[in-house]
């Protein structure tokens, strides 16, 4: 093989590899566009099915999806706020300085902030779950809703 043929072979091979990579990228992009969105109610539907309960009606599905969307919009994950970050920094600084009293004070502040955030989150979650349960009950009680009765067995 001459140097000229060897160079052409390398160029052809490189070009073929580039074409293959482009084809793979296009295929991945196409798959990403066609992925179905996850069903927000998939877990509940499976639980109802496994319990032998009636499936959700289209009205129930729409009401539950509306509740889920409202809950997610009204209760985003705020992450650690500035006050919590400052308390954590004070705690770390106190530890590094060997100041037990300051570390304990910062720990109390951190615990209070986390407790308040947890309380708020749990209250919002309880409200959401009560509203979701009322969609399943549809104005009746636990004995008149086969869906709820099947789920709590």
General description of the model:
This protein is mostly helical and about 150 residues long. About 80% of the residues lie in helices and about 0% in strands. It contains six helices and no strands. The protein has helices spanning about 5-35, 40-50, 60-75, 80-95, 100-135, 145-150. It is flat and about 60 Å long.
- Rounded to the nearest angstrom, the radius of gyration is 29 Å
Mean pLDDT: 80
The backbone outline, from C-alpha atoms, is flat
Q: What composes the largest sheet?
A: none
In terms of quaternary structure, the protein is: single chain
Query: H/E element string?
Result: HHHHHH
- Helix content range: over 70%
Classification by helices and strands: mainly alpha
Number of helical elements: 6
Total strands: 0
Strand content: under 5%
Question: Low-confidence spans: pLDDT under 50, at least 5 residues?
Answer: none
Distance between the termini: 79 Å
Briefly summarize what is shown:
The chain has 153 residues and is mostly helical.
Give the helix/strand layout.
Elements: H1 3-34, H2 42-51, H3 58-74, H4 82-97, H5 100-137, H6 146-152
Helix pairs in contact: 3-5, 4-5
């Amino acid at each position: 093989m001459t140097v000229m043929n060897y160079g052409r072979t390398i160029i052809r091979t490189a070009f073929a590899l580039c074409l293959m990579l482009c084809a793979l990228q296009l295929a991945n992009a196409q798959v990403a566009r066609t992925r179905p969105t996850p069903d927000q109610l998939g877990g509940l539907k499976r639980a109802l099915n496994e319990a032998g309960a009636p499936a959700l009606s289209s009205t129930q599905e729409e009401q539950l999806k509306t509740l889920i969307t409202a809950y997610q919009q009204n209760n985003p994950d705020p992450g650690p706020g500035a006050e919590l970050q400052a308390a954590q920094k004070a705690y770390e600084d106190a530890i590094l300085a060997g100041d037990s009293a300051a570390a304990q004070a910062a720990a109390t502040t951190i615990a209070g902030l986390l407790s308040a955030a947890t309380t708020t989150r749990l209250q919002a979650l309880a409200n959401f779950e009560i509203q979701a349960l009322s969609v399943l009950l549809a104005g009746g009680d636990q004995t008149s809703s086969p869906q709820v009765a099947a789920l709590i067995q």
